[in-house]
Design a protein that fits this description.
By secondary structure, this protein is of the alpha+beta class. It folds into 2 domains: 50 residues; 76 residues, PH-domain like (Roll), CATH 2.30.29. The protein contains 3 helices and 7 strands. The strands form 2 sheets. Strands 1-2-3-4 form a 4-stranded antiparallel β-sheet, covered by helices on one side. Helix 1 packs antiparallel against helix 2. It is elongated. It starts with 8 loop residues before the first strand and ends in a 10-residue tail after the last helix.
Length: 151
């Protein structure tokens, strides 16, 4: 088994996040500058351009939000609009199969939770390494019973 990361550790799609945040700023700036340079626009129309730019940038910032934070108490999964804290014992398995868009956490209640903070989109090798590190942490820290889940 590989060496465990030091806690706390945060996993997030760094390159994807950088692209999204850069695009958010660029879109906001370009649309706002265009709105100010168009002489035929009235104040209300300019404001609508700026509000539209802010909404577009806001969506991109929301897409850049996902992360997975592992600390002594467990794992916190932050997805687009939801945040959920899991105790170590609640996580039975960490999976990232070929073709999966992100990591899935199989939980003791029989459900599966997507963890968008580890996704192989732009940086596949990084996502695989992060998934392995999270899997190793779960295996080392889980106090769940070693019974195989039914189903």
């Amino acid at each position: 088994m590989s060496e465990l990361p030091t806690l706390p550790v945060t996993f997030r799609p760094g390159r994807t996040r950088a692209v999204l945040l850069t695009a958010a700023v660029a879109i906001f700036v370009v649309i706002t500058v265009v709105a100010m340079l168009l002489k035929q626009l009235g104040p209300g129309e300019r404001l609508s351009f700026v509000v539209t730019a802010a909404l577009l940038a806001g969506v991109l910032v929301l897409l850049a939000r996902p992360k997975v934070v592992a600390d002594e108490s467990g794992v916190t999964v932050v997805n687009l609009t939801h945040k959920r804290h899991l105790e170590w014992a609640e996580i039975l398995q960490v999976t990232l199969r070929p073709g999966d868009p992100w990591v899935f956490l199989n939980l003791s209640d029989g459900t599966s939770l997507p963890a968008l903070g580890i996704q192989p989109g732009i940086a596949q090798q990084r996502a695989i390494a992060d998934a392995r590190a999270l899997r190793a942490l779960v295996e080392a820290r889980s106090t769940a019973h070693p019974e195989t889940p039914q189903g």
